[in-house]
Amino acid sequence: MANYATSFLTITVIHCWFLSWQSQATDTLKPGEDLREAETLVSSNGVFELGLFSSDGTSSSSHYLGIWFKNDPNQKPVWVGNREYPLMDSSGILSIRYDGNLVIQDRRQIPIIVNSGMLALTNDTIAILLDSGNLLLKEGDIIVWQSFYYPSDTFLPGMKIGRFNLGTQHLRKQFLVSWQSSSVPATGSFALGLDSVNATLLMIWNRQGALRQVGFWDGQGLKLIFKTSSDDYNFSFVSNTDEVYLTFDAPRSQSSSWFTMSSNGQIQEYKMVGQSISVVNHSICEHTTGSDATECYEMTPSRCRGGDTFSEITGSLPNSVVVNDSFHLGLSDCEILCRGNCSCTAYASFRNDGTGCEFYYGDTNVLPQLNGEGKGTLYIRGETPKSGEQNNSKIWWLVIILVVFVVVTIIMGSICFLRWRNYGSRGNQDSMRRILEQFQFQIGSNVAGVAKDKHEEKYRGLKDEELPQLSFSCITTATNNFSEENKLGEGGFGPVYKGILGGNEIAVKRLSKQSGQGLEEFKNEAQLISKLQHRNLVRVLGCCIQREEKILIYEYMVNNSLDSFLFDPTKKRLLDWKQRFCIIEGIAQGLLYLHKYSRLRVIHRDLKASNILLDADMNPKISDFGMARIFGGDEARAKTNRVVGTYGYMSPEYAVHGHFSVKSDVFSFGVIVLEIISGRKIVKSCHADFFLNLLGYAWDLWKEGKGLELMDPTLSNSCSTSQFMLCIKVGLLCVQERPEDRPTMSDVVSMLSNEKYRSASSKTASLFYSYKFLCFTNETNSFSE
């Protein structure tokens, strides 16, 4: 009996293992089935595997849908299905939805349609992974969609790059786009594909729009500027009235081979034998291994005294670094921005995954002394100074540092003493009273007659005084010790928390120790915004300066920022046309006050959708004045070596040359207007067939008389056509390349408020986008997400 039981148990275990192996080895996903984290599809012969993966290998990081070689120990994806829409954690699920489309979603329950370019017509579909690495969505024998139509950064055997559906309204372009960094699969800085004019040329573009030919079809075969590790590749070039494309077959051997457009602009040639993978990096720039090219991306000679080459050392940048709001940029983008600004002497990435930019504008002789101090990689303009030069300057730097330390210690000691003497418990109570009186003014200003006048008279005496200061312990109590539950968000300055002070809601912005902004920006915002009073500007109520803590206290905005509504697929429906137009008018009124009617003539310099906050009535309020500049009465423009702001919203003259004026804010306003009426981000792709950024896409529609196609689909039932067309005109006028061609904010307010502009055929903006670093233009087979 015992033997019988043992045999039965053994057979049962083997049977369960076989069933489990069968279920894990399937290559097909059917309706009603889910693919979760750690579950995969495997092609019939075990060549490729499909599943969900994380950018850094942790469950809390961004997650993506990808395909990789089954035998690749690193599981580096060769295709990614949601590059620009990552899942927030490991709760992702892949399934075939009720309508037959392939979707992924996480615990937010917001579906991302993988096959959005070609939707299913029935709900009778299956998804199958082939041994070629191609993922198909099929209705019976009909292929609805396939992943080979939408390559990522990898060129696999059998895949095609080129243009399809020529001569139709459904032109489809297929090309490779690099990852943002080696671990982040979002759209990067480089693209590889066929030239849009001469399709026999194989080209690479960078985000500046610069071209570089890397190969051509001579009628018999593909000639590359570098030699591949094998001459057995069978490249084919097809050109007819319907399509033009390049494809290849793998070498005639047992190995698998493929090409990748890397995040640093190199073409990588991979070969896999078993689980062993070899790679050859083919650089297309001169004086580098694997290339016999005589030129590279740079089309014009360097204008910078230090040249445009960068040396690499290990370390971390000193505290004088400026950190841009640039999480969507890769290391190659950082190099482009630093190279274009001669004042930038070094750059680095401030995130472990190789994204985000930080720039250095100081003396490069200091940097080699930091070699080895930190685990990051720095890129210094020019050649690294020799060790002898470092030793000669080391003593001087020690003397300077010692003197600065002594001076700072004396100053900080004096400040602490004065603060202790003047801001004790009595001072803290007085500050609390003054802050609460500001709340009383806010309530009283809604009451008509004498009550309103009394509050205004009282508040008029308060607003010219020094900004009220609260103790750190008082703010800690108000925010529940800066708890995560009270955290509203985080920007370049630091985290923002919600708090309760005297029964009133407040917003508390706390300077982060890792922030690139420091005491100068803090003082600028505290002193500046406290002197500005307008219904479309966020009011600062008080501050806290205690030891290393630098904190600002604002009125609380119930509805957070404009971008949280505008770019959320669900919440954007809450913004009808009337509200959006009122928001545009409110922003314009706030800027007009800053530029013309405030006691201080102010240029914001960092105007963007995330810096427009919405109160309980959805009224817009401009916030974040840390980067603002005050102009004198006779000043019209200025120049800075410290270019700060947000990629996409910066005017060309400011981003390239550091020149800024009130017209720089006008440009940013124009970008926001186009974002509001279209519901699209400036840095996201606008049209699947043309790959223009938002400004170029809007301009093309305007020229073709198709301006209404820019409209956010959620506005179709509430939008006023005349107001919508007026907003396009205003937006395009504001984003003209030359500052002198842009209107003033007085002109903008007049246009928005005067009915005659809504029907008149006012002068059209004559735009030409020369700022190539913002996007790839259509003429260069553009791409931009």
UniProtKB/TrEMBL annotation:
Domain Protein kinase: 482-757
Domain Apple: 304-383
Bulb-type lectin domain ranges (all copies): 26-150
EC number, UniProt record: 2.7.11.1
TM stretches of this protein: 395-418
Membrane topology, as annotated: Single-pass type I membrane protein
Keyword annotations from UniProtKB, A to Z: ATP-binding, Cell membrane, Disulfide bond, Glycoprotein, Kinase, Lectin, Membrane, Nucleotide-binding, Phosphoprotein, Receptor, Serine/threonine-protein kinase, Signal, Transferase, Transmembrane, Transmembrane helix
Highest taxon of the lineage: Eukaryota
PANTHER family: G-TYPE LECTIN S-RECEPTOR-LIKE SERINE_THREONINE-PROTEIN KINASE CES101 (PTHR27002:SF944), RECEPTOR-LIKE SERINE/THREONINE-PROTEIN KINASE SD1-8 (PTHR27002)
UniProt protein name: Receptor-like serine/threonine-protein kinase
